[in-house]
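Final report, Chapter 2: Outcomes

The project's central promise was a pipeline that accepts a single protein chain and returns its three-dimensional structure in a standardized token representation, suitable for archiving and comparison. That pipeline is now operational. To close this chapter, we reproduce one record exactly as it appears in the project archive, with the input sequence first and the structure output second.
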Amino acid sequence: MQNDFYKIGQVVEVRGQKIRIRVFENKNSNILVYQGQIIKNVSVGSFLKIPKGFSNIIGKIEGEYIQEISFPTNSINTQRFTKESATIDRIIEVSIMGVLNNGRFQRGLIDIPLVFSDAYILSNDEVQKIFEFSEKKETSICIGAINDYKEEKLYVNASSLFASHIGIFGNTGSGKSNTLAKIYTECFSKFKPAPGFSKSKFILIDFNGEYTKAFDDTKRVYNLSTRTDDGDKIPISHAFLEDIDMWAIICEATEKTQRPFLNRTISLYKRLREINLENGSVANYIRVLLTSMFDNYYENPTLFVKQLNQIKDILQILFRNTDEAYNILDSLYPRNQGSKVILCRDSTTGTIWPDTKAQFNQAITSEIVDALFINGNFSALDEYSLFDFSIKFKFLEELSSQRINEEHIAPLIGRYENRSKRVKKLFSISDNTTNDWLSVYSLVDVNVEFKKIIPLIICKHFYDIHKQNYQGKSLHIIIDEAHNILSTASERESQTWKDYRLETFEEIIKEGRKFGVFLTISSQRPSDISETIISQLHNYFIHRLVNNEDIRAIGKAVAFIDNTSYEMISVLPQGACIFTGIASNFPVLVQVDLLPKNLQPQSSTVDLSEIWANG
């Protein structure tokens, strides 16, 4: 009797994966009542079964329409049916999703029903089997309620979800921030106590400061700032300073002249780091600079004056007290005497120094070196100071030897001096890697220029370290508002920088899986993000999108979405999303559970009426 009650119609047409079913007239109501229980009847988006042999073919209803029965005028039925009493059938269009066999659901076109086969509503147990994307609840996380079966919760296998690249897309206010926080909160609360969880590291790039209070209290939050000196600093290895690509990007170095100069600077920095600068070696570098200055005073007095100022900058990096050395340098000046230029010292006495390098070194160079190297005056250089010395020394050395053109390299030095100040505010050089299991990097107080540079440096740094030391561990990179860093349409940056940025993340998403590196991106503008990146994602949470370009980008890149789900994207309610990918057997419309207030991201819309009412 129960089976007869659940029977709702018969197959009337089979065309490959698509079939049509005529619904019995007594099964056209919204709900059915059986032994006091209310049972939801079939509708668009729900599932049904068609028994065949020892298995049940499972289909998803994608549409429905009515069909009026018409009889030819010469039919004998014409005497019994009038136009008013003609039968109208309800026809539902069904797409075959798979087979339910021995309590297990198998996705795919495994079997096809026959015409006149009976179709049945699914029981609660059968619904659970179809949406059982994880065999064990112990190794799965709960996403939310299944929209067409609200009494059922959607559980997803944690390994299938988190050992993959994840995309979360939706317009502002659609619930994507809650979805991102929900899936990782579930992951942390369930698996963090496990003994092997420490082998995984999570880093979250938070452009708007939404997640600083979400997740576990044991996380490490870096509140970064380029505007003040009070922001946190990200510990990063000295290898960052040796990355020619990164400095070329930060300083916008030209390919032909400025990038080779930076390369030579980094070579000098490496050499100085190996020899561990001390008094003797520093004195030799200073003698080289002073000697080169003397070589230029005769042929290029203007350059001589510039060298004086640049040498002062270099001495300031190396020594605590430079007053006496500055006085000596300030007393030097070139002066015309007839047809030649002579080097003078102290304009009050008019002392003239002989035009020989040996006498200059004996007097001026030795006097400056003696003034600098008094006890304790030499400053121990940190990594940044050593790099500052390297680039300024290399510039002055090559300028004096006329290896470079000042007009070509001086703009690079200017950009370096300006931007390196911000780099020093954001990063501290340390070879002791952080042991934070979850690091949240808030960029809300970072200027526009560095909002793209910082995520690139962070992600590349941790990716390279993890790749070099891969030993069965995992690295999970989470980027909220990912269109800020993965955009293909930015006009404020050079093509070189844009290519390097996209190539870095495309390498992570294409090759990272082999090394246990997984990327999660959340964005309200999928059309701005590289198609390569979107197409390489494994699992998708698609919230409401209303822009046609964004919807087309999803339809073009996401292979796991069907036409019915695709057409629903623009009308999804808040908090609802289409979940699809390798962790699901088919696209599922799910209402993501709202997190408790204390764990929610700070992304809710301001309540203006409450603000205005409270004054």
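Archive annotation: The first helix runs from residue 2 to 6.
This record, like all others produced under the grant, will remain available to the consortium after the project formally closes.
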